[in-house]
Amino acid sequence: MVYDDAPLRLGQFNKLEVIKELDFGLYLDGYDGEEILIPRVYVPEGTQIGQFLDVFVYRDSEDRLIATTLKPYAVVGEFAYLKVKDVSKLGVFLDWGLMKDLFVPFGEQHSKMASGRSYLVYIYIDEQTERIVASAKLDKFLETDVTNLNEGQEVDLLPYEYTDLGIKALIDKRYMGIIYKSEVFKSVPLGEFTKGFIKKIRTDGKIDLSVVKQGFDRIDNLKSQIYSLLIASNGFLPYTDKTDAEVIYKDLQMSKKDFKKAIGGLYRDGKVNLQMDGIYKSK
Description:
Strand content: 35-45%
Number of domains: 4
CATH topology of the largest domain: Arc Repressor Mutant, subunit A
CATH architecture of the largest domain: Orthogonal Bundle
Order of helices and strands: EEEEEEEEEEEEEEEHEHHEE
CATH superfamily of the largest domain: Winged helix-like DNA-binding domain superfamily/Winged helix DNA-binding domain
Largest sheet: 5 strands, antiparallel
Structural class: mainly beta
Number of helices: 3
């Protein structure tokens, strides 16, 4: 993390000097004459006046600035996949790793948020109240200029919502795309970062994703996968071009289209023989 001398960054980590000690905690120099309390429970053992502490600064329930050495799951300016702890008439409260929960105003819910469920939100400072809040209306915080992205590019994905088409995912903490059902060959849990690839960038800027690399090297990997399984199965696999696509998907975690490409490649390489009842390893 990068720090500078001023100004104080609400909802961020700051490096602040200890200037006063009381029974219930320490006061830190928040710049411009502002003193910020860090409660005793969060003070590292042996801390002395004049030392600098790396602390996260937020507002308590009475809107007073408070510092803590606890690390929230995300800070202002970041997206996070967080669980709803409580629901009120004004909005919901999310667990973000601090004593005070993170508030999502009712007007910032994309759809009705339910207790116990997790959602992707963006954390920001409300200009009117100067409070740290979150929003599930992601579109206004996502980048729309995709000129820096390329098809086939490896990216960091944060899957966050299952849909009828597939799985919505945050791309490199900046963009949104979708992993279509036909591209999902393994379990993709929500809220966990994973590597993925940009399959297609559409003319409207929408992004299709894949959890497997596209192109010839991807098929080569599938060929190796099938051949290794063939050897482990005593030289025979009971799959043909008549095998149901769902069986291929369930057993081999690949589409039938990719299966046929890989088997065709193994056949041309002279590594397999294709019979009516399945695939045999060449002798």
